[in-house]
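TICKET: design request
STATUS: open
ATTACHED STRUCTURE:
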């Protein structure tokens, strides 16, 4: 309650006490007068009480006015408190790792719908402060090869730390091999796939696939993380190469 409210409440209490004391003295005086004048008529008694009635009425009116003022002050206090109230805020913390458990640095993390974004530090950690304490959705994406992505549909600010693992989704690669001079499809050829480690650049393996298709089409699946070099080999022709990440 504000200082004004306390003052109004004190005035009401003081007024009530004064009224009680005045009425007590009045009744005592009337009792003494009645004892000394037993022959007093009811009309005379009523006349003696008349001067107290206007004072009592004014006191009650003042009390009612003060009570209304106090209630108005309370309403104003509640409205002021509601206006000053701020929504509860919370912090969302998480960590991003790869399939081997190693932390991933530089991963972009975005709060969907809010436009808030950050990146993970060297320990794979990210943090958002000042969020409303309601669940949010997160979108995560690597900013360097192999550009893995993930989505957290429900993350609770102020709750447990968010744990995210960026795995590898096998990539489907397809294409068509044609004669560079005529544009006709090459119906038989070999695909040679060399795999390299993203970090060290070390060659990690080679795969060969023989294709026979009247339209020169091929399709294959890359099921490992890394950099891939695809070569099309045809007898009597120079290999055509394409690098895939």
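STATUS: resolved
RESOLUTION: sequence designed for all positions
ATTACHED SEQUENCE:
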């Amino acid at each position: 309650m504000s200082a004004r409210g306390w003052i109004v409440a004190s005035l009401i209490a003081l007024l009530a006490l004064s009224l009680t004391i005045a009425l007590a003295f009045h009744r005592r005086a009337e009792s003494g007068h009645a004892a000394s004048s037993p022959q007093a008529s009811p009309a005379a008694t009523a006349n003696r009480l008349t001067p107290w009635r206007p004072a009592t009425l004014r006191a009650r009116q003042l009390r009612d006015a003060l009570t209304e003022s106090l209630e108005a002050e309370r309403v104003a206090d509640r409205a002021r408190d509601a206006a000053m109230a701020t929504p509860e805020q919370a912090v969302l913390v998480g960590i991003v790792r790869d399939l081997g458990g190693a932390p991933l640095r530089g991963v972009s993390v975005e709060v969907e719908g809010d436009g808030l974004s950050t990146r993970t530090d060297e320990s794979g950690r990210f943090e958002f402060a000042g969020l409303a304490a309601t669940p949010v959705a997160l979108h995560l994406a690597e900013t360097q090869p192999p550009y893995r992505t993930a989505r957290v549909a429900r993350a609770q600010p102020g709750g447990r730390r968010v744990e995210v693992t960026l795995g590898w989704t096998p990539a489907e690669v397809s294409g068509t091999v044609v004669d560079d001079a005529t544009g006709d499809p090459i119906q038989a050829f070999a695909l040679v796939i060399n795999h390299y480690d993203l970090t060290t650049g070390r060659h990690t393996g080679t795969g060969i696939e023989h294709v026979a298709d009247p339209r020169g089409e091929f399709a294959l699946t890359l099921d490992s993380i890394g950099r891939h070099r695809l070569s099309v080999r045809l007898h009597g022709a120079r290999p055509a190469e394409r690098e895939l990440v």
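CLOSING REMARK: The longest helix spans residues 3-36. Helices lie at 3-36, 42-49, 52-84.
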